[in-house]
Amino acid sequence: MSSSGPNPEPVSPDPPAAPMRPLLTQSWLDLAFLHWAVDPADVAPLLPRGTVPDTFDGTTTYVGLVAFRMDRVGVLGLPGVPYLGSFPETNVRLYSVDGRGRRAVVFRSLDASRLIPVLVGRAAVRLPYVWARMGVERAGDTLTYTSTRRWPGPRGARSRIVVRAGGVIGEPTPLEHFLTARWALHTSLLGRTAYLPNVHPRWPLHRAELLECDEDLVAAGGLPAPVGEPVSVLYSPGVPVRFGPQRRGR
Predict the structure, then answer these.
(1) Which range is the signal sequence, renumbered to this chain (predicted)?
(2) Rounded to an integer, what distance in angstroms lies between the CA atom of residue 72 and that of residue 60?
(3) Cα separation of 82 and 4, whole Å?
(4) For the whole model, what pTM was predicted?
């Protein structure tokens, strides 16, 4: 595995060892990870300054469409809020590496069904949150995620994803680790590129079958519309997550 530009840190399925003082806590539940290969040349102009596309094999990067349930978002160690902090979310994300070799994700959009978290996310950390009408339904092992944008748009941009969760993956492939084991995000904040780390347990990943995918969120994020089936479809029951500054290990 390699990436153009700086030598990237190793991909690790386990979080960094350095402890973290939690500023923000939440849980990500019932996740569907869909990924398509994309040309790094299409990704590079969409990344924050000082970062380049992170590539798995030196030539290919990926766009991810990730649908899930956000649960009980809390701040400064306080208990999570049941209503405002719990809602469906669907993200379009890219993969980046900065000049220090730190791997991360870059969000092109984060569709969420609660307006107040959308406003806070846009104002506080300049993340491209979008208010949408959304739902997550489960029938046995089959999950259906739906989203239709309300504001700021493009109004009507939508997604409908139906997956059937399968068996637990005992040992994920290097590509599956590359696409899921991400311990930070890069974003443009106050004219600079910020690196915002997170920690959570190792992903419990399952095989998944894609039954339906009708979406235009990827194209709305400035990328070519995906062609063909995703190269990777995964499901996870979820993990608890902490965001905050990492302390140096002793």
Answers:
(1) none
(2) 36
(3) 43
(4) 0.93
